[in-house]
Design brief:
419 residues; 2 domains; five-stranded antiparallel sheet
């Protein structure tokens, strides 16, 4: 089932909502943090935690990858190898053998633990071949968070689409001439943006379309109002980007005579694993120094910190000495051929290159440690929570019980968790 506790969601005003477009294996870590934030807040107000699984989204290129740290600590990226279908809602995509293969590869690349086989079977059971991606994604969410009483909501449900039609058709009526409507038209599962042109509506490719003959679904400007009118939302748990655009929706809420719910910022967390913590201590660096520093720059800074010689300075000194050497020769009246100058320059560069290679070899262990730290804390030059799924850590730290550890340590004020 995609939705639970329907009566409670309809009758109470203590619904705590969060949401995200569907993602493979539960999506990036920040989806897990948002979900736990909703669960925590629901407990505080005696309400129901609801996860809006945005199945209407059509950005397949954004969700087709699985990123991970493999058994050797290297960053890897796996791809769901299928051709994107233009504008087709991702929730309607069928799970195929290519996706199941990518998921199997994900677990095969991880360090094998007592939890790996169980988690692989759990994932493959959810992603049964032929299952629509929206159902597979909902199944994963129920496996991870069902014990907390989380309700997973799919906006493709007929009753919700029926509820939203008056809201979105009012948006259509109030759309200024020439503007894009704050909704999409659904055409055979595909979302189509439309623009008001007098009394008619046209698509980007100048097709005229009768919006009254189609189902309308929310876009980014109307998703929140449809959600909050439907659930009578008490609090919405949001990421920083969401908070920014929600703050810009006052006019949308005003024209539907609706009050905004309270907005609570989700936890934004970087997980520091034991081996990473040990390497940080050996490198004499704080985890905060890694975050938002490009990996190459961080590794180079560690190299310089532990090197016994500044090779850039050494090279500059050699060039300065070379210039003085040739100047002294010229003062003595000895003619120097261009070839001799070139050969001396090459010899000096070779000396610096040799010294750099020797230093890199001497510091190879330190460099590897720095690379491991960078991969774990700031993979792909991005926040950890935007790269890895929670399965990465469940595999190493207790299986499904790792969710309990995150739940117990949930705190929007903290930004790191050492495990």
């Amino acid at each position: 089932m995609l939705r639970r506790n329907d009566k409670q969601m309809s009758d109470t005003s203590n619904n705590i909502v969060t949401g995200q477009q569907l993602g493979l294996l539960g999506g990036p870590l920040y989806s897990t943090y948002k979900t736990l934030g909703a669960i925590r807040r629901a407990e505080q107000v005696g309400g129901q935690a609801i996860f809006w699984l945005e199945s209407n989204d059509s950005d397949f290129l954004e969700i087709k990858f699985l990123k991970l740290l493999d058994a050797n600590g290297a960053v890897r990226k796996l791809e769901w190898a299928r051709e994107p279908t233009e504008r087709l809602s991702c929730g309607l995509l069928p799970v195929d053998n290519a996706l199941r293969t990518a998921i199997e590869s994900f677990f095969n690349l991880l360090r094998q633990t007592e939890y790996t086989s169980l988690l692989r079977d759990l994932a493959l059971d959810c992603y049964a071949e032929g299952t629509q991606l929206r159902s597979a994604s909902a199944a994963v969410m129920h496996e991870l968070f069902g014990k907390f009483g989380l309700s997973v909501f799919d906006p493709m449900q007929d009753d919700f689409r029926e509820f939203t039609q008056p809201i979105l058709r009012r948006e259509a009526e109030l759309t200024p001439d020439g503007d894009q409507g704050n909704f999409f038209v659904v055409e055979e599962g595909r979302r189509t943006a439309v623009f008001k042109n007098g009394t008619t509506w046209t698509t980007r490719d100048d097709r005229t379309i009768d919006i009254n003959e189609h189902v309308l679904v929310p876009n980014v400007k109307t998703r929140s109002i449809c959600q909050d009118l439907h659930f009578k939302t008490h609090t919405y748990v949001a990421g920083p980007g969401e908070i920014k655009y929600i703050n810009e929706l006052n006019d949308v809420y005003a024209r539907h005579s609706a009050a905004k719910p309270a907005i609570e910022r989700r936890m934004s967390l970087t997980i520091i694993e034991p081996n990473v913590q040990r390497k940080l201590k050996k490198l004499d660096v704080e985890a905060s120094a890694v975050i938002k520093t490009r990996n190459e720059e961080f590794i180079e800074s560690i190299f310089r910190q532990h090197s016994t010689i500044d090779l850039d300075v050494a090279q500059e000194q050699l060039l300065s000495h070379k210039s003085m050497f040739f100047s002294d020769i010229a003062d003595s009246g000895i003619a120097v051929t261009p070839t001799f100058k070139t050969d001396i320059g090459k010899a000096l560069k070779a000396l610096v290159k040799k010294r750099r290679a020797e230093e890199k070899e001497r510091l190879a262990t330190v460099t590897r440690q720095a690379e491991t730290v960078a991969n774990a804390i700031y993979p792909y030059n991005d926040l950890q929570e935007r790269s890895f799924t929670v399965f990465q850590y469940m595999n190493l730290y207790g299986g499904l019980e790792f969710i309990d550890q995150l739940y117990e340590n949930y705190d929007p004020s903290r930004d790191m968790l050492t495990i």
